[in-house]
Amino acid sequence: MSYPGSPLIARELLRAEDRLHLMELHPAEHAALKRALRAPNVAVHRRDGYEGVLALSPPVPRKGLVLVDPSYEVKADYDAVPAFVAKLTAKWPEATVLVWYPILAEGRHERMAAALAQPGVQRHEVRVGAGRGMLGSGLIGVNLPHGFALDPA
Prior knowledge:
Elements: H1 6-13, E1 20-23, H2 27-36, E2 42-45, H3 49-56, E3 65-68, H4 77-91, E4 96-104, H5 108-116, E5 122-127, E6 134-142
Parallel strand pairs: 1-2, 3-4
Antiparallel strand pairs: 4-6, 5-6
Helix pairs in contact: 4-5
């Protein structure tokens, strides 16, 4: 198993004073994360990510990044993400939020992106294919740090 991908990168970028909280509901994936990411400043929670992040928010100090990366296998995630971001930013207005999403031919991401669109929210997509399956991926940034651009071009 080659998991954990981006969680491993995140752990490697942590400073000594940083904390990383990961949410994984699937038992086998949770176990793989726990084995791969043992570190004193990493906590791997076996719980729903939406519920877990809201329960832990806001942290002290009130600075942090939340990466929202649901499976999107459950089509309801496309509607759940904007609702979650609204709840999170109401509870923790300083939160920096990055939402990752797949670009699929069905275009389900478009309604989600439109629901998240507001002044200051950035969106960037990379397309890598055409036809069927995953055509690319996108990021939506909410409350990004001053001067940060998802698309620096």
